[in-house]
Write a structure and sequence with these properties.
There is one protein chain. Helices cover 58% and strands 7% of the residues. The chain is an alpha+beta fold. It has two domains: 72 residues, Glutaredoxin; 145 residues, Glutathione S-transferase Yfyf (Class Pi), Chain A, domain 2, CATH 1.20.1050. Helix 3 packs antiparallel against helix 6, helix 3 packs parallel to helix 7 and helix 6 runs parallel beside helix 8. The chain is globular, with a radius of gyration of 17 Å.
Length: 229
């Protein structure tokens, strides 16, 4: 039995973190049965990070490692037809999404303009949370941002990075179909994980404003959203 442990849902998506939603979408697109357990505290996760997977007693952390494990253990063929060049592109997209993650997270937890709306949405959708817990999480994230580097940026400079990432993705995503073919691959699941957490949020950050104006990104996001519902 496969069990996915990840952060809780928010704004109508199954995980409010891009990495957990990426694994969720991969499992759905692959047609693998699984249980989904939502947790707030990552202290018990491998390396203290979500998501992680328990598969027949084996615990696997890190979203890319999880996808590789699932493809190997369960003979998932989503990426079987990719060419060598496409696999390189898939890796580059994955690394770009790592960069976008920090800007998206910055917009939620650090930017004073958007933090109250994000905090209130979490409190509204998850009554077990308290303002004190979220404030502690915010302070923890502020430390992470500082040591990663994005926390030392002024907001306009931080968003310039994220907008550059989204602009590159808008150049890559076709107007029809998916990234590499007419069927989704693991890269489409990864892209959905991050785009959905921006697109379906009602908070009008610079990332949301830009994404909404890109018809191909919106189409891709909503197509995967429908496929994994």
């Amino acid at each position: 039995m496969v069990t996915l442990y990840s952060y809780p849902p928010l704004f109508g998506v199954a995980d409010n973190n891009g990495y957990g939603l990426k694994v969720f979408a991969f499992l759905k697109l692959a047609g693998l049965p699984f249980a989904h357990r939502h947790v707030f505290d990552a202290a018990g996760a491998p390396r203290g990070q979500l998501p992680y997977l328990v598969d027949d007693g084996e615990t696997v952390g890190d979203s890319d490692t999880i996808l590789a494990h699932l493809a190997r253990r369960h003979a998932v063929t989503l990426d079987a037809a990719l060419t060598a060049d496409q696999r390189v592109t898939a890796l580059l997209i994955s690394r770009l999404l790592d960069d976008l993650y920090w800007v998206m997270s910055y917009s939620r937890w650090k930017d004073e303009r958007f933090w109250p709306a994000f905090r209130d949405a979490l409190l509204r959708e998850h009554p077990s949370l308290t303002p004190a817990q979220l404030q502690a999480a915010r302070e923890f994230n502020a430390q992470r941002y500082h040591f990663q580097g994005i926390g030392r940026y002024e907001p306009e400079a931080a968003y310039a990075r994220g907008l550059a990432d989204l602009r590159a993705l808008a150049h890559l995503v076709p107007e029809t179909g998916y990234l590499f073919a007419d069927r989704p691959t693991s890269s489409d699941a990864a892209l959905y994980g991050f785009l959905a957490n921006i697109h379906f949020s009602p908070i009008d950050t610079p990332l949301k404003d830009f994404l909404t104006a890109q018809a191909n990104l919106v189409r891709h996001c909503t197509a995967i959203h429908a496929a994994v519902a």
